[in-house]
From TrEMBL:
InterPro entries: DUF5675
Domain DUF5675: 5-116
One Pfam entry name: DUF5675
Highest taxon above the source species: Bacteria
Protein name: DUF5675 domain-containing protein
Lineage per the UniProt record: Bacteria, Pseudomonadati, Bacteroidota, Flavobacteriia, Flavobacteriales
Length: 140
């Protein structure tokens, strides 16, 4: 399965939509682009693989693998990128501003259920992160 995350960059956060085979899954919020600096930047555009992960804090969630110079890039619920994320990706039901969203848990469980079904069949899940060129917004 290939997930396509198309970003729009803003100074205070990054908003994106996540699709699979042209079908919308959810919106996402991330930190702004700050040259891949640990804990203050979203991850670079590129192709990654996703795996299941468990922690006491987030229980079962998702991890984005092999991000250059980064570790523990997770996909987990959050509604405010600047306050709740350290480089991770948070699914949200709707945006409330740059790097801000609403009803994150609802969007997260929808995404997690979809991805876990594929992983449980022994199939790979890849994530392609790109700029949303239709919006004309690019990272600086």
């Amino acid at each position: 399965m290939v997930l396509l995350l198309s970003r729009t960059y803003f100074p205070n956060g990054t908003n994106s939509k996540l699709e699979c085979e042209g079908k919308f899954i959810c919106n996402n919020i991330e930190l702004p682009w700050k040259k891949n600096e640990t804990k203050v930047s979203c991850i670079p555009e590129g192709k990654y693989f996703i795996r299941k992960r468990y922690s006491n804090k987030f229980k079962w969630h998702l991890e984005v693998m092999n991000v250059e110079n980064r570790k523990f890039i997770l996909i987990h619920p959050a509604n405010n990128a600047l306050l709740e994320l350290n480089g991770c990706i948070a699914p949200v039901t709707q945006f409330s501003g740059p790097g801000l969203g609403l009803m994150s848990r609802k969007a997260f469980y929808k995404l997690k259920d979809l991805v876990y079904k594929v992983l449980d069949r022994g199939e790979e899940v890849s994530l392609i992160v790109q700029s949303d060129s239709q919006k004309g917004m690019t990272k600086k």
